[in-house]
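Hello Y.,

Per our agreement to keep a running log of every chain we model this quarter, I'm adding this entry. I've kept the format consistent with earlier entries: sequence first, then predicted structure.
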Amino acid sequence: MKVERTVHGVPLWLMQAYLEALGGTVEGETVFGKGWQARLKKMEPYRIGSLSIGRVKLLLEGNEPVVSSLLEKLELKTFRGGG
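Predicted structure for the entry above:
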Protein backbone atom coordinates (compact mmCIF):
# COMPACT_ATOMS: atom_id res chain seq x y z
CA MET A 1 0.00 0.00 0.00
CA LYS A 2 1.27 3.49 -0.90
CA VAL A 3 -0.12 6.68 0.56
CA GLU A 4 0.99 10.23 -0.22
CA ARG A 5 -0.06 13.18 1.93
CA THR A 6 0.86 16.82 2.35
CA VAL A 7 0.84 17.72 6.03
CA HIS A 8 0.44 21.41 6.92
CA GLY A 9 1.61 23.08 10.11
CA VAL A 10 4.05 20.34 11.16
CA PRO A 11 7.78 20.92 10.61
CA LEU A 12 9.94 18.12 9.23
CA TRP A 13 11.71 17.48 12.54
CA LEU A 14 8.38 17.12 14.37
CA MET A 15 6.98 14.72 11.77
CA GLN A 16 10.14 12.64 12.20
CA ALA A 17 9.62 12.67 15.97
CA TYR A 18 5.98 11.56 15.57
CA LEU A 19 7.01 8.66 13.32
CA GLU A 20 9.80 7.73 15.70
CA ALA A 21 7.30 7.71 18.60
CA LEU A 22 5.18 5.30 16.53
CA GLY A 23 8.04 2.81 16.29
CA GLY A 24 10.17 4.19 13.46
CA THR A 25 13.89 4.69 13.11
CA VAL A 26 14.97 7.98 11.53
CA GLU A 27 17.68 7.90 8.85
CA GLY A 28 17.91 11.30 7.16
CA GLU A 29 14.54 12.15 5.61
CA THR A 30 13.47 8.48 5.64
CA VAL A 31 11.90 6.69 8.60
CA PHE A 32 11.78 2.90 8.77
CA GLY A 33 9.36 0.88 10.88
CA LYS A 34 8.26 -2.72 11.17
CA GLY A 35 6.15 -3.27 8.04
CA TRP A 36 6.40 0.32 6.79
CA GLN A 37 8.71 3.02 5.40
CA ALA A 38 8.06 6.77 5.28
CA ARG A 39 9.88 9.25 3.08
CA LEU A 40 9.60 12.90 4.07
CA LYS A 41 10.29 16.00 2.06
CA LYS A 42 10.22 19.56 3.35
CA MET A 43 8.09 21.67 1.01
CA GLU A 44 7.95 25.41 0.43
CA PRO A 45 5.76 27.04 3.08
CA TYR A 46 2.19 27.95 2.23
CA ARG A 47 1.92 31.73 2.40
CA ILE A 48 -1.08 33.95 3.02
CA GLY A 49 0.12 37.55 3.17
CA SER A 50 2.71 37.66 5.93
CA LEU A 51 1.55 34.32 7.41
CA SER A 52 3.74 31.32 6.57
CA ILE A 53 2.66 27.73 7.25
CA GLY A 54 5.21 24.92 6.95
CA ARG A 55 4.42 21.83 4.91
CA VAL A 56 5.86 18.32 4.69
CA LYS A 57 5.24 15.75 1.95
CA LEU A 58 4.77 12.25 3.41
CA LEU A 59 5.07 9.13 1.25
CA LEU A 60 4.18 6.09 3.30
CA GLU A 61 4.58 2.53 2.02
CA GLY A 62 4.06 -0.85 3.62
CA ASN A 63 1.66 -3.61 4.54
CA GLU A 64 -1.94 -2.38 4.27
CA PRO A 65 -3.08 -3.13 7.85
CA VAL A 66 0.13 -1.66 9.29
CA VAL A 67 -0.06 1.51 7.16
CA SER A 68 -3.77 1.99 7.92
CA SER A 69 -3.15 1.71 11.66
CA LEU A 70 -0.14 4.03 11.45
CA LEU A 71 -2.15 6.65 9.54
CA GLU A 72 -4.90 6.63 12.19
CA LYS A 73 -2.35 7.21 14.95
CA LEU A 74 -0.47 9.83 12.93
CA GLU A 75 -3.67 11.76 12.17
CA LEU A 76 -4.35 12.04 15.91
CA LYS A 77 -0.86 13.44 16.46
CA THR A 78 -1.09 15.95 13.59
CA PHE A 79 -4.65 17.12 14.24
CA ARG A 80 -4.68 20.85 14.91
CA GLY A 81 -7.57 22.73 16.46
CA GLY A 82 -8.64 26.13 15.31
CA GLY A 83 -11.21 27.88 13.22
